[in-house]
């Protein structure tokens, strides 16, 4: 070791990992070229590039055009019309079309829609399938046992609707535009902008025309800046800008770590004689072991063709690094009491998305920050036993709009950005807060020595008590810290897909319609290119190969270095955010790809 290196270590000026030798470059090939990790101001190739952005100013910018974002936009314009005020509202949505990135089962409680548009039925909202039958079952390897659903309990779906949420969001977008909301699909917000006093000023959309090696193409174009009095973030679960704001403003201080699940879903056309529009089925148990939280859903839609939505959710706090949520989903469909519905049927779509499972304990302690707020799944509003969050998303968006409008139209402000100050109190006075408080102990109750069996008893008691028990259970910790070393766990050998009921990963990804420009930096960025091989592969046998539901990550031979290396197939990414959540070292950071990119679920 050189004297200089020894001296530097003594004085803590550098660490061994910061020294990148020629041999390191061979053993650890450069993976990340994205400008969020490799700054352009230090890159000679960018010195002569014009980096000026076009600027537009509005009253309210909403980041994300899902149920929460569209409801916020609609409510803001409704208030302006009622009070005869002029207000400019803009929604930026990374999908090429409104609703294109929406993935959900979904059974929807119409309570928020009733409030937003009391005459939604006459207006033609696409809620066509009222729930007719509810079933809840426990699966063993070969058997199925019914679990009773009592009226008024979270699993009771009386009065709800089976919907294609993407279709509803598209309809909401049409209503928003009719009210004068400006919607920019295909424009991904990539950066939060700040005033000099630190309050949020708005967002910038992403640049386009950047080559895979991080250099500017001839087609390079700078994104635009949208400045607003109030910026509302409705990015969905694990939004990358929301994550930044949580860290910058310490919004989670005092809250428990958010815990997540990954939901995988397929759409099938089944034989007409097996179709029962309005039938809703949920299962727990097989194929998961008793210490892995999760279960299935199967919904029959009232469509021109006999269509069902089937899915599987796996809690991302699982411990065994050999688990593949995608493979568990495929295995579930082969159960002897389940497979019959798929025989003679055709699979027509596939997708996956992370969902919040932390409940009230994991909500940000502060929902607002100077210049804006978090709504919907960006904040973590989801009812785990109900497996529902759309009505909370819509309601939170409406409450945020009311508070933002109130601030913009009258309240004196302490910062340049207008803070929707009354929003947290409005949330606490709404059904969102009371609902989440009632079921706060359901999800953490499954962390016990008996696993699933203890969880059923404890959560059943909590539901019976209606949340009146005088204690609040804690979650086990961050999901990325839950994995055990691969050497301590039983390796899982999954059955080969039959191509009829169960399928391989790549043929499934082909059904997502995912599309990314090939010649662009990977939007799955690594803080340190060495971590995948030195930590994830060495200790957990590369769990990202298995927890990713789209085949984005794979370890391949590094012929030059004589070892294995991580290969990122970013073009496969379906924006589920699982890697951003489950990566053991939190070394993976999801950022928006060029032009938004991603899946084209189109109302799946």
TrEMBL record:
Domain (ETF-QO/FixX C-terminal) ranges: 499-602
Species assigned in the record: Musca domestica
Entry function: Accepts electrons from ETF and reduces ubiquinone.
Region forming the signal peptide: none
UniProt-listed SUPFAM superfamilies: 4Fe-4S ferredoxins (SSF54862), FAD-linked reductases, C-terminal domain (SSF54373), FAD/NAD(P)-binding domain (SSF51905)
Enzyme class at the top of the EC tree: oxidoreductase
One GO molecular-function entry: metal ion binding
Name recorded for this polypeptide: Electron transfer flavoprotein-ubiquinone oxidoreductase
Pfam families from the UniProt entry: ETFQO_UQ-bd, FAD_oxidored, Fer4_ETF_QO
Names of required cofactors: FAD; [4Fe-4S] cluster
Keyword 4Fe-4S: yes
GO cellular component entries: mitochondrial inner membrane
Cofactor descriptive note: Binds 1 [4Fe-4S] cluster.
